[in-house]
């Protein structure tokens, strides 16, 4: 049995990973099969890792404006480092490793074995959230971690740094493309392949460009599912719209010798309830529209990456004799058609202005160089 290995850089949706929020692609009946390895509040992790170093740093500062009150907030609002990183690991795909099949159960055993030594193998990547998901199409791991380095001469002596954390673990950057991150990912794939071998699965290694394209397609499909879920949520709220006519029919009477008006107790209760419902509906719709806007931006980003990677693959046609360009183009066409389908859903719910506003928006590339 041969299976591919996918290592993806995730968005880090902790509420989704821990199932506080369930997207449309989650089968709730299988959620009990998920495994939680770590689930620690990230702010607690920052206190644990950096408070002592922060105290040492602040004690050395003679100027008050150089002191750091909250290291978590400094990283969160800064641009040099991310609060945390997430990797998603998967064996095969939903066709040959479906979560509801025997192969899927085998994949879960392999991923579980791989996860056992992950923290020991990566001492500079502090894991605070890790979950094995069995309630989606294919078994996969979400691992969220805070990368840190010690003995730093700049800033806090213990501070957040992915580049330094990986370097401390022996992954020194080399020639172009041989970054610390790429070296680390390859090493983790080797570790996962060893766990696969113990269960009779051989690692089927695809070319780098093919694999990246597969990752982009996967992420695009996931975002499309989220958009569909958001569209359904907005539709449900719109169906519960306030009955304005019932409010307009409230009988208002003037108070004699006064500018005030009076209502019957029943009408007053009805008007008060209507006002509260209106405010709640406005808040809910505002939140959903923001989420929808963010999902649309991600779709635009992934669409751009898929197209760019497709063009790059064509340059290597002579090297990759086994590349089926026709199939690749068809898959890309299918993705574009799916994208148009979800856009049509958005238009049906009167949110076309969001699409027009975000037509040319492409988020910053989330890969690490």
Tags for this model:
2 domains, 369 residues, 12% strand, alpha+beta, two-stranded parallel ribbon, BirA Bifunctional Protein, domain 2
Q: What's the quick description here?
A:
By secondary structure, the protein is an alpha+beta fold. It has helices at residues 14-17, 42-60, 71-77, 102-116, 118-121, 162-168, 180-197, 208-239, 244-248, 265-315, 325-348, 352-357; strands at residues 2-3, 5-9, 35-39, 85-91, 125-133, 140-149, 159-160, 202-203, 253-254, 261-262. It is 52% helix and 12% strand.
Proportion of strand residues: 5-15%
CATH topology category name of the largest domain: BirA Bifunctional Protein, domain 2
User: Which of globular, elongated, flat, extended, rod-shaped describes the shape?
Assistant: globular
Helix content: 40-55%
Low-confidence stretches: 318-323, 360-369
Separation of termini? 34 Å
Indicate the radius of gyration in whole angstroms: 26 Å
Structural class: alpha+beta
Mean pLDDT: 79
CATH architecture level-2 label of the largest domain: 2-Layer Sandwich
In the CATH scheme, the class of the largest domain would be: Alpha Beta
Number-wise, the strands total 10
How many domains? The number is: 2
Number of helices, where a helix is a run of at least 4 consecutive DSSP H or I residues: 12
Biggest beta-sheet profile: 6 strands, antiparallel
Element order, helices and strands? EEHEHHEHHEEEHHEHHEEHHH
């Amino acid at each position: 049995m041969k299976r591919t290995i996918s290592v993806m850089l995730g968005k880090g949706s902790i509420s989704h990973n821990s199932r506080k929020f369930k997207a449309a692609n989650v089968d709730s009946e299988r959620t009990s099969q998920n495994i939680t390895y770590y689930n620690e509040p990230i702010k607690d992790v920052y206190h644990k890792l950096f408070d002592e170093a922060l105290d040492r740093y602040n004690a050395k500062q003679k100027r008050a404006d150089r002191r750091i009150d909250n290291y978590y907030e400094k990283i969160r609002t800064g641009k040099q480092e991310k609060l945390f990183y997430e990797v998603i690991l998967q064996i095969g795909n939903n066709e040959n490793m479906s979560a509801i099949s025997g192969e899927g159960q085998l994949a879960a055993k392999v991923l579980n074995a791989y996860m056992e030594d992950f923290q020991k193998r990566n001492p500079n990547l502090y894991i605070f959230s890790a979950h094995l998901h069995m309630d989606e199409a294919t078994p996969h791991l979400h691992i969220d971690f805070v990368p840190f380095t010690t003995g730093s001469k700049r800033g806090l002596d213990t501070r957040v740094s992915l580049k330094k954390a990986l370097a401390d673990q022996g992954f020194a950057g080399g020639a172009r493309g041989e970054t610390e991150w790429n070296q680390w990912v390859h090493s983790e794939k080797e570790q996962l392949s060893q766990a696969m071998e113990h269960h009779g699965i051989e690692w089927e290694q695809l070319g780098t460009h093919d694999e990246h394209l597969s990752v982009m397609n996967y992420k695009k499909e996931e975002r499309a599912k989220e958009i569909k879920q958001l569209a359904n949520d907005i539709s449900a709220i719109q169906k519960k719209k306030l009955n304005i006519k019932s409010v307009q029919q409230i009988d208002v009477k003037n108070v004699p010798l006064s500018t005030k008006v009076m209502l019957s107790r029943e009408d007053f209760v009805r008007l008060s309830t209507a006002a509260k419902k209106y405010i709640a509906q406005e808040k809910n719709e505002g939140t959903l529209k923001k989420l929808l806007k963010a999902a649309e931006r991600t779709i635009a980003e992934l669409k751009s990456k898929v197209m760019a990677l497709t063009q790059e693959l064509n340059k290597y046609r002579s090297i990759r004799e086994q590349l089926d360009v026709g199939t690749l183009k068809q898959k890309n066409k299918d993705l574009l058609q799916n994208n148009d389908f979800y856009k049509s859903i958005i238009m049906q719910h009167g949110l076309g202005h969001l699409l027009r506003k975000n037509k040319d928006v492409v988020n910053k590339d989330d890969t690490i160089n």
